[in-house]
Automatic annotation (TrEMBL):
The active site is at D231, Y379, H435. It comes from Pristionchus fissidentatus. Belongs to the peptidase S33 family. It is found in: Endoplasmic reticulum membrane; Microsome membrane. Its main location: endoplasmic reticulum. Residues 50-160 form the Epoxide hydrolase N-terminal domain. Its EC number is 3.3.2.9. GO terms for biological process: epoxide metabolic process. This is Epoxide hydrolase. The keyword Transit peptide does not apply. It comes from the Eukaryota. Keywords: Aromatic hydrocarbons catabolism, Endoplasmic reticulum, Hydrolase, Membrane. SUPFAM superfamilies: alpha/beta-Hydrolases.
Length: 462
């Protein structure tokens, strides 16, 4: 009882204080700039032409990479009693990864996969934006609906190489819930990532990315569309849904959380951690705990975020100069975020769900484009943009669906909690999978996207 009092009394005080604060103190009205300029020099009108694009890394860049890998310097050993990923990337396994990269990895083969679908670039707010724009066979599908698909960090559009074909031809891949619908997919590289140019000025936040992608959709001819995203993709598409609800039919997320800025949200956050089995319907959430999220996930796993949100250029300089360092930094996330238990394994469980060729393709894109620093700056801009968090606090009115993957460390909110922040029409807890859902569990993800969209499309025509 003593312990319970220790939790409940301060919680009630906190709720009361928060309630008083939100009702008595006028809250900042969420708004956002309608335009921006991240190009070099003074603002000028964008060059709106659309140019076809193919990935084609020069031989010299690949030869330089091989040379650097050959002269890698490793002078540390794993601790004798910690042959795992618990201290970070296990150096024993790193040697195998580097050997594969040097001697077995075939970039040209991966490049051909990247060039499977039509790609383009166009200038928006001064930045050259790269995107896939792929359409289904119009003879096969009666109804083709546009979808903006957004990736995250430390990923890029390569993560979609198995997911994209499912969206384009759901019947062939057996993921359709309605054989008539397929997606026209627009999948951009976030500026500063993949094959998009990096912003030249400060302030390119998630809000700016959402606005730029809205302009991109308009430029390719779509005023209204569906959204899908995980990681930054989930933050960007959620912001787009808040900023331009009139442009969005529906929002599908594979990472989602509501800020507890309503009384109900705060109640679930606090009391839901004490008696989750009484408040949350799904048994997956009967062990929900905000405290556990802080102590077991945020504290031990968010160091990278603090570094990138404060001094991205410092850590990025080293990563951009060493392929070995870059691979360790990026692939450690592909281990832990796929399943937290993999931290205990000598090889980080990296090839349980992915092949080394797949993983090294993600890394090689960062290496050859030389853009790890600009990808990391996106964290700094997230916290620096004064409009970002007030906007995040706003309720999402458009129909929203959530695919929750059980090993996604950061994504633990029950439907009841999430529904305090968005118009939640469906949440499914998937049987397996982690953070990189499109890359790891494309079939589960695609099936849920199609069932969500089929439901909304049926309603449209009633
Ligand atoms: C949720 O979405 C539905 C369907 O578009 C809409 O009718 C309803 O008004 C929305 N609810 C809220 C609270 O915005």
């Amino acid at each position: 009882m003593g312990l319970l009092k220790l939790i409940i009394v301060p919680s009630l005080v906190a709720i009361a204080a928060y309630f008083a604060y939100t009702t008595l103190v006028p809250q900042q009205k969420a708004d956002f700039p309608r335009d921006g300029w991240f190009g070099t020099g003074a603002k000028r009108p964008d060059d709106t032409k659309i140019t076809p694009f193919k990935v084609a890394v020069p031989d010299a860049v690949l030869e330089d990479l091989k040379k650097r890998l050959a002269s890698s310097r490793i002078s540390h050993e794993v601790l004798e009693d910690a042959n795992s990923f618990e201290y970070g990337f296990n150096v024993n396994y790193l040697k195998q990864v580097i050997d594969h990269w040097q001697n077995k990895f075939d970039w040209r083969k991966q490049e051909a996969i990247l060039n499977t679908w039509p790609q383009f670039t166009t200038e928006i707010e001064g930045v050259k934006v790269h995107y896939y724009h792929a359409k289904p066979d119009a003879k096969k599908y009666k109804k083709v609906v546009p979808l903006l698909l957004v990736h995250g960090w430390p990923g890029n559009v390569f993560e979609f190489y198995k997911f994209l074909p499912m969206l384009l031809d759901p019947v062939a891949h057996k993921v359709a819930s309605n054989a008539d619908i397929a997606f026209e997919v627009i999948a951009p590289s976030i500026p500063g990532y993949g094959f998009s140019e990096a912003p030249k000025k400060t302030g390119f936040s998630q809000l700016a990315a959402a606005r730029v992608f809205k302009k991109l959709m308009e430029r390719v001819g779509h005023k209204k569309y569906y959204l899908q995203g995980g990681d930054w993709g989930s933050i960007i598409t959620s912001q787009l849904a808040r900023m331009y609800p009139e442009s969005v039919y529906g929002l599908h997320l594979n990472m989602a959380s509501a800020t507890p800025n309503t009384l109900k949200g705060l109640f679930y956050t606090v009391v839901g951690s004490i008696i989750p089995h009484h408040l949350f319907k799904h048994k997956h959430h009967h062990s929900y705990s905000t405290l556990k999220l802080f102590t077991e996930v945020l504290l031990p796993e968010s160091g990278y975020m603090h570094i990138q949100a404060t001094k991205p250029d410092t850590v990025g300089t080293g990563l951009n100069d060493s392929p070995l360092g870059l691979a360790a930094y990026i692939l450690e996330k592909f281990s832990t975020w796929t399943n937290g238990e993999y931290r205990k394994l000598p090889d980080g469980g990296l090839t349980k769900k992915f092949t080394l060729d797949e993983l090294l393709t993600v890394v090689t894109i960062y290496w050859t484009q030389g853009n790890i620093v600009s990808s990391q700056r996106f964290y700094k801009e997230c916290f620096a943009d004064p409009h970002n968090f007030p906007m995040t606090n706003q309720y999402i009115t458009v129909p929203t669906a959530h695919a929750q993957f059980p090993h996604e460390l950061f994504d633990t909110q029950p439907a009841e909690m999430l529904a305090t922040g968005c118009n939640l029409t469906s949440q499914v807890v998937m049987p397996d999978g982690g953070h990189f859902a499109a890359f790891e569990q494309p079939t589960h993800l695609a099936k849920h996207v199609f069932s969500f969209v089929a439901g909304l499309e049926r309603k449209k025509h009633k």
